[in-house]
Amino acid sequence: MTARVDVLHEGYARPDGVASTVGLVRDGERIIVVDPGMVADRNSILRPLADLGVAPESITDIVISHHHPDHTVNIALFPPVPLHDHWATYHGDQWTDRAAEGFELTPNVRLLETPGHTPQDITTVVNTADGVVAFTHLWWYEGIEGDRRATDLDELLHQRQRVLELADRIVPGHGPAFETSA
Q1: Which of 44, 88, 123, 161 would bridge 112 by S-S if both were Cys, CB 3.0 to 4.6 A apart?
Q2: pTM over 0.90, yes/no
Q3: Bridge partner residues of 6 (DSSP)
Q4: 136 contacts 173 by C-beta, under 8 angstroms
Q5: Strand, coil or helix: what is 155?
Q6: How far is the C-alpha of 70 from the C-alpha of 133, rounded, in Å?
Q7: Residue 165: enclosing H or E segment and its boundaries?
């Protein structure tokens, strides 16, 4: 069995605003939201979730690619569930240290350490029936040459190559998903 991926909100970065791409991953009993960040209206996350028949209370995990507010500000839309980042899992008053690299949330969902945009960036890799999907901020959107906010552009480009070698589809931080063959 493989996981199912949906994009709840397609992000953007433009002069009149910025919004995070927000993802949903379902694998068995686990329902994971990736990067519940800034959107123009919280219903931009909640409405697509409802359309998929998923109640906010059924979310079991949240993953944040990095700690910028545009990727984290709407975490409180969901109940207190395990929150996964670059170096730990947080739940209630428990902070459990662990490396992100290779950490498996489920047999079909794992995290990779992919610094570059920030030193703490991670990518969520999901095995689906249609191939491997990577939720990542290594790209703001398809085709972007670099990253003007990158803390380490050389490392970011190195990590992009790594993700391109394993993913069939990229879901970037602020834009529509794209196939790696493009």
Answers
A1: 123
A2: yes
A3: 24
A4: yes
A5: helix
A6: 21
A7: helix 153-166
Write the DSSP string, 82-126.
-EE-SSEEEETTEEEE---TT-EEETTEEEEE--SSSTT-EEEEE
Cα separation, 75 vs 44, whole angstroms: 14
> Which of helix, strand or coil describes residue 63?
strand
54 contacts 89 by C-beta, under 8 angstroms: no
The string of pLDDT tens digits covering residues 12-33 is 999 999 999 999 999 999 999 9
CATH number at residue 22: 3.60.15.10
Tokens in use for 119?
Answer: 């030193």
Q: What is the DSSP letter of 41?
A: S
R_g of the chain computed on alpha carbons: 15
Tens of pLDDT, residues 53-97: 999 999 999 999 999 999 999 999 999 999 999 999 999 999 999
- The number of distinct structural domains making up the chain is 1
